[in-house]
Amino acid sequence: MALARTFAIALDGVRGHVVEVEADISAGLPAFVLIGLPDTALGESRKRVGAAAVNAGCPLTQKKLTVNLSPAALPKQGSGFDLAIAIAALSAAGAVPAASAARSVHLGELGLDGRLRPVRGVLPAVLAAREAGFDRVLVPSGNADEAGLVDGIEVVGVTGLRAAAIVHGAEFDPLEQEPVVANATEHRPAEEPDMVDVTGNEEAVEALVAAAAGGHHLAMMGPPGAGKTMLARRLPTLLPDLAGADALEATCIRSLTGLGVGSELVRRPPFEAPHHTASAVSLVGGGSGRITPGAIVRATHGVLFLDEAAEFPPSVLDALRQPLENGSITIHRASGAATFPARFQLVLASNPCPCGHYGSSDAECTCSPMARRRYLARMSGPLLDRVDIRLTVRRLGLAALRSAAESHPSRRTSRHLRARVESARARAVERLQGTGWVRNADVAGSWLRAGERRLGASAIAPLDRALERGAITMRGYDRTLRLSWTLADLDDASSPDVDHVGRALFLRRGISA
């Protein structure tokens, strides 16, 4: 037949759109025309597909071949359409049964030798194919384990174009080919750091436990050597393993970024720590061609740690304000827009001044008051208003260090503290059942202030007075309420009392650790 079709997937963020790949063979001079808003990499597929078909022993037609990617108005990017284009062309020439090709989705980049190379984003693409009702997808052998993470759809891993054609029933002799294997990296280091390494700083550790239990954002300030970075890097060890939709979403993001996905979902929360010279694009995502996810997307369901936060350009820090509120980021470019999840836990760490010694008892600060104000003003008020816990971390003296070393409690291990976090989160999940929320940090303030969830006048009095004096904003009021519920969950209390509210307000406005 002169016209045939098959299907591929175009990714928009982590969402996939089904693309119908039509191939038409007509009379005329030999030509290969590709239409349907392809980008540069996809436009070059004409050369790749033509050479791959010849070297695989199943050459394309010598007539005029027109390939259309529909819907034509949807931007299409990358080399993952190569296999679908080749199969549609072979099906139009009658070399591949049209019925089999028309019910399958094809993903993969073709090399000039006819072998299939792994591509990014296979997991979200296979999910989109399943949701669209397809029952079979052909992927490169190097992506087969990743695609197999999706249930309810047949995944066929193929080494090359010839093998894919044979799967559809083409009458070609099988050809042994060595599959191209993806360069996958490990999900996380073999061993995570442990909170037991932190000596002293009991209040700081408890603040981290509260942050982990409720999913609250955290800001730490203190002189160099106080342990801010050590504490921040151990926060992910307190977080529970990812499960269900969260694990699947984190794995999809890993697939999009090209870090490699094996045969298992990502289970440990990710940890991202960009350098303070990072640009806004590297932090939130973007790019001039393909829109790629930034650090806040890669940190979804995990921790984004900004060390030396006051050294970041203010415009970069302020770019976090909208994702912190919405839990997602939509990046607009002239070529289109892409939406990514951005549900991360923000941790800021900063010195109190350029020299780092302001407020320190063992060193003299050499900064002027204006220099200190200018330094801390890099972290804007609207950004800090979105941070639930503000922690002042001080250096330990020799006496405190020896005392902590002599009474090093086993309950300070990350495993023990994570058990406390998991118990608190379980209480929150039970209380929030049916609301769609699972963490206290996600709960709407209006929900906490209404009905039976509203705290008594005596319990809420410190918070009301702080709001009346202008010490906190309305956003801060709601965030303090959420933190109060987290502290109550950690204490196994049915609801926050005046002590929980006072502690939450204390954490909100800064404590001395």
Summarize the structure in words.
The chain has 513 residues and is of the alpha/beta class. 37% of the residues lie in helices and 17% in strands. The strands form six sheets. A six-stranded parallel beta sheet has the order 11-14-17-10-18-19. Strands 1-2-4-3 form a four-stranded mixed beta sheet. Strand 1 and strand 2 (15-26) form a beta hairpin. It is elongated. It starts with a strand and ends with a strand. The relative contact order is 0.10.
Number of alpha- plus pi-helical segments? 22
pLDDT averaged over residues: 91
| Count of strand segments | 19
- Note the overall shape: elongated
Largest sheet, spatial ordering of strands: 11-14-17-10-18-19
Residue ranges: pLDDT <50 for 5 or more in a row? none
SS-based class: alpha/beta
- End-to-end Cα distance: 76 Å
Helix content: 25-40%
Q: How many strands, which pairing sense, and closed or not: the largest β-sheet? A: 6 strands, parallel
Give the radius of gyration. Answer: 28 Å
Beta-strand content estimate = 15-25%
